[in-house]
Amino acid sequence: MFEVYDLIPYDCKYIATTILTDFQYILWEVKWRRALERLIASYDGGQNAALTLAQLADDPPHNRPKHQATDLLQNVVADIKEAAQKAILQIQPTVIPEGTFTEVKQGASEPFTSFIDHLTQAVEEQCSGEVA
Question: Which Pfam family, just one, is annotated for this protein (predicted)?
Fold first, then answer.
């Protein structure tokens, strides 16, 4: 998806919210914003030097897709999209837990964030009545 389409900041955020868990999204956004801050620093002295993090990260008042599509230069949109993709690829995948939430244990090499996602999914599944 990232290689095929031109994605404005709004699109990047939307895709992240649909494919990542809530906790993964928080981590993704932190990584993405750090990458965007590096982009801003790299634009220093050039034609994109006036861009702000709010403009690149879909923050108000720059969170209107129509304006993003017309106001951001194509090379900036490509940079934003690349930063979003790299941030997504840094997020650990989530494994769907089996059994009840009390049986979920953190693996020896499992990142804490993945463990939290497994535990959250197990609780949600059990509370929805699918396992209970």
Answer: Gag_p24
Q: How far is the first Cα of the chain from the last one, in angstroms, to the nearest whole number?
A: 37
Range(s) of the domain holding residue 119: 95-132
CA proximity to 3, closest of 71, 89, 69, 63:
89
Same domain, 84 and 22: yes
How many of the other CB atoms lie within 10 Å of CB of 16?
Answer: 18
Q: How many CA atoms lie within 13 A of 24 on its CB side?
A: 23
pTM: 0.72
Residue 1 lies in a domain: no
Shared domain for 36 and 64, answered yes or no, is yes
How does pLDDT run across 4-39, given as a tens digit for each residue? Answer: 788 999 999 999 999 898 889 999 999 999 999 999
Shared domain for 42 and 105, answered yes or no, is no
Length of the chain: 132
